[in-house]
# Entry
Amino acid sequence: MLRLPELNILTPGTLAEALVFLKQDGAIVVAGGTDLYPNLKRRQVNHGTLVSLAGVASLKGISGNSESGLVIGAMTTLTEVVEHPMIAAWYPALARAACLVSTPQLRNAGTLGGNVCLDTRCLYYNQNELWRQGLGYCLKSFGTICQAAPKSPRCFAVSSADTVPVLLALSATLRLTGPDGDREIPIEVFFRRDGIDYLAKKPGEILTAIALPPAGALKMAYLKMRTRNSIDFPVAGVAVALETDAGNKVTRARVVLGALESTPLLLEQATTCMVGNELTSELIDKVADMAGKAAKPIDNTDMSPAYRKQMARVLTRRALQQLIC
Ligand SMILES: Cc1cc2nc3c(=O)[nH]c(=O)nc-3n(C[C@H](O)[C@H](O)[C@H](O)COP(=O)(O)OP(=O)(O)OC[C@H]3O[C@@H](n4cnc5c(N)ncnc54)[C@H](O)[C@@H]3O)c2cc1C
# Structure
């Protein structure tokens, strides 16, 4: 059995208190702990102090309406996201993505904020310490080379959070608070193309909420590919959101690929190609080809890179086809 290292767990009751606790050397935030605890057990990360957000009531809950959109507290659990009637009605792809995360038990504990901030994953990183030690560790965890791409100066660990592609397709904004105060940023600037430095989160910052703009007449879908449908992380995912006018022409559209690289990929080319045009099967094929070309997975997850690249094309086509049915 893998055991947790000795930990100092701090339990603030307010956000202000949490920010103070986070100033301690080596301190990190824990939300549901469904990803952080396994990573600590395998010694992938080394934090002696955890600042638990479980007692910070202001980070929990969902508010808003159809006019203003919704604000989802970072500590809202994935189960709450799945079961919330307004999310199911207005943002069904988000409910679907949350529902596809791991298992019911983990969704009861895991939070939306934790999913957005989820550590990147790699076959050479998500292993126990002995396994990694035998190989000489890796760039992301106590080593000096990327085992997946030994000549690369950067880490290729994969962005694997199911809700992130959907939140990007929905143009969500993120609310953060930290030592320099509060800020709100579009979600697309939060992710970096680096498996180690994967979030544009400043030191000591806490994600407080995820804000969704009004859904209006937006249609959306999320499709995920994984090895075992009962539990696994995605190895490819596609989120699409689009709106059409009375003449069936696309007025806004976003296509996002997930779980293929260190960052989710917002296909801006797809938006340009779809807006102003009718969503015909020819256009769908064109956008699906774009997705296939844009996807550049490497061999560091389940399933081969060639298959995942091909499935980026297939999933994109299927997701768009769902929206014209
Ligand atoms: C067997 C198994 C299967 C899984 N399958 C999937 C899957 O299919 N899809 C998927 O997306 N995930 C999966 N997960 C991962 C995990 O359960 C979810 O991603 C969950 O949403 C993580 O949320 P959490 O609250 O538990 O995060 P935690 O583990 O508490 O934290 C994750 C990271 O986010 C940081 N963090 C958390 N909250 C905040 C905040 N508010 N501000 C700043 N930083 C924060 C933490 O410091 C940590 O680095 C799986 C996990 C397991 C163990």
